[in-house]
Amino acid sequence: MSILVVSLLIVLSDQASKFLIRGVQIPALGISWEGIPYGTSVPVLGDFFRLTYIENSGMAFGIDVGGKIFFSLFSLLASIALIAYLYRVRTAPLGFRLSIAMILGGAVGNLIDRMFYGIIFGYGSLFGGRVVDFFDVDFFTIDFFGYHLSRFWVFNVADASVTIGVLLLMLFHRVAVSGDKPVHPSTSTEPPVAS
Questions:
Q1: Is 113 assigned a catalytic role?
Q2: Within its chain, how far is the Cα of 60 from the centroid?
Q3: What range does the domain containing 77 cover?
Q4: What is the number of domains present in the chain?
Q5: By the 8 A CB rule, do 106 and 158 touch?
Q6: Catalytic choice (47, 133, 138, 180)
Q7: Distance CA 191, CA 74 (A)
Q8: Within a domain: residue 191?
Q9: Which of 77, 79, 86 is nearest to 2 (CA)?
Q10: How far is 100 from 138, CA to CA, in rounded Å?
Q11: Do 113 and 68 meet the contact criterion of CB atoms below 8 Å apart?
């Protein structure tokens, strides 16, 4: 299942980027990288795009459902289910398998943070870690029933991978499930529907 290489590359790039942002000390290997101080923003494209190091103990966008251990175990079981599902759909169209592989890679990337970062960085136990987030993008201002959003939630490579994977899944799901070929509107042989 070569599509799992995509998941592995996502996990590796996610973890490497998090160590670059957070910093890492491995004296046995002579590795010492300070990273960005917690809560600090580094402009990349002015104020529009910054690297801002924060940690998130909940799900995406700071949502907390069921506690850390519950969500970590759920993520672990979901990741195992996605691997099994990828095997089951190994002959499905590439776009469909790619979307599942991206979701899997993102889920595993954040799962590693939740499961092991507490131990690795010495602030918690197994399943007591926090997810490292750092992409900080300016967003148009939204005021909706008292809710105000002027910047997008800070996210990471794993979050982006899951989001893109879900969008691709919506695009390729019908093709994978029904076996239909995508049809360009100008080449469709079906009669137009009257409105």
A1: no
A2: 9
A3: 4-178
A4: 1
A5: yes
A6: 133
A7: 46
A8: no
A9: 86
A10: 29
A11: no
